[in-house]
Amino acid sequence: MSDTDRQTGGEVLEREKQQTKRPELFKVLLLNDDYTTMDFVVEVLESIFNKQPVEAFRIMMMVHTQGKGLCGVYPHEIAETKVEAVITSAREHGFPLKAAMEPE
Ligand code: TYC
User: Fold this and answer.
1) pLDDT value for 7
2) Which residue of 11, 14, 40, 73 is 20 to 30 Å from 93, comparing CA positions?
3) Distance 35 CA to ligand 1 centre (A)
4) Would you say the pTM of this structure is higher than 0.90?
5) What is the pLDDT of residues 18-54, one digit of tens each?
6) Nearest CA to ligand 1 atom 13
7) β-sheet with 68-75: strand ranges across
8) Mean of the per-residue pLDDT values for the chain?
9) What secondary structure does DSSP assign to 10-34, as a single string?
10) Does domain 34-104 have CATH number 3.40.718.10?
């Protein structure tokens, strides 16, 4: 251990460990409700999650029949931004659509 390491009580080692850590990934999910239109959910999946129309329809139907569906997996900050974008757009259009994120 160098003099510098000894003086800082190992902080140098901890910082190196953090810097090499891969970003933790989060699933972004859409949740079902009785009021949001199917067309709007498909639109959200195409515009916010960059899904092709057939895939967007498949995910929407998964949410509609199973209660929730996976839209994508992203680093924390991007997942948060996606959830916010869904909620903002849904509220602007008067829909109660909900999105959630959870660790992968
Ligand atoms: N269940 C809604 C309906 O019948 C459609 C819907 C699908 C709503 C997916 C939300 O995340 C959702 N109009």
Assistant:
1) 40
2) 73
3) 7
4) no
5) 566 766 999 999 999 999 999 999 999 999 999 999 9
6) 37
7) 68-75, 25-31, 98-103
8) 87
9) THHHHHHHHHTPPPPEEEEEEE--S
10) no
Pairing of strands 68-75, 25-31: antiparallel
Map tokens 């680093």 to a residue: 75
Tokens of 32: 């079902």
CB under 6 Å to ligand 1: residues? Answer: 30-34, 36-38, 41, 60, 63-64, 97
Which residue, chain included where needed, has tokens 């057939």? 54
Structure tokens at 88: 């903002």
Q: Which residues in 1-104 belong to E strands, given as ranges?
A: 25-31, 68-75, 98-103
